[in-house]
Each structure stands twice: as C-alpha cells, then as structure tokens.
Design goal:
Blueprint (H helix, E strand, L loop, with lengths): L5 E5 L3 H13 L3 E5 L2 H10 L6 E5 L7 H11 L5 E5 L5 H7 L4 E4 L4 H20 L1
Parallel strand pairs: 1-2, 1-3, 3-4, 4-5
Length: 130
C-alpha cells in the first residue's frame, strides 16, 4: 500500500483548519496544520519527509499567505500550492504573482477542493516521472 500524501494546511481560522483537516483525513491524507504563516513555514522546513501539497490562507498574521507561497516556491518550485481566501477584491492576482497553483475563494465546495488536490498531485507525480 502506498503511503498517504502529506498535506500542510495553514489558516488562522480554527474552524477552517478543523473542517479541512477532518475532511481530508477522511480521504486518507496525512494532514499537518498551522495557525499562521510563520508556524506553517517552520513546520514546512522541519518536515524531513517533505510535504506533497500546501493549502494556505492569503491573509494571516506574522507572515501572509503570499509570503508563504513565495518562500516555498523559491526553494521548492515543484510543490503544488492552493491559496484560499475570503478577503479582497482581486486576491487571485496576489496569489498568482506569488506563484500559487490555484486560488479558491471562501467558501468553497470541499468536493471541488478534493478534485483539485487529486489533479495537482497527479500532475506533480507525472512531472517527477518525466
């Protein structure tokens, strides 16, 4: 049996983190969570097995999601990142500039998120075998 994909979820909303963690664990993902960008980056760097995908809010204390995305993509360009936000007029412009793979506006459908995660992980697997 293959090991489950490891996901990092970063959001300052406890409700969103708990909801995503519960949903994704039920889909057999190994889920690690952080409540702000600084904590998320520390967890990302400390994880010696690496994460397969990151989901991050854009607006958070300490380090914004845009900052998190920029730092991760600079050092690990192949890690897929989904940015989530419920704030701002054109948050997708910020996330795109920071090189997020996808941007979802809150609230979003969990089954859609699941589908997008599956597609991004399949694409990442394909790139690593090419």
């Amino acid at each position: 049996m293959n090991k489950p994909y490891k996901l990092l979820i970063i959001d300052d909303s406890k409700e969103i983190v708990a909801g995503l963690q519960s949903f994704l664990k039920n889909k057999n993902y190994d889920v690690v969570t952080a409540s702000d960008g600084l904590e998320g980056l520390k967890l990302f760097e400390a994880e010696n097995q690496g994460f397969d995908l990151v989901i991050t809010d854009l607006v958070m204390p300490y380090i914004s999601g845009v900052g998190v995305i920029s730092i991760i993509k600079k050092n690990y360009p192949d890690i897929p990142i989904i940015a989530i936000t419920g704030w701002g007029e054109h948050p997708e412009a910020l996330a795109t500039e920071a090189q997020a793979d996808l941007v979802l506006e809150k609230p979003f459908d969990l089954s859609k998120l699941q589908k997008l995660i599956t597609e991004l992980l399949a694409k990442k697997a394909q790139l690593s075998t090419d």
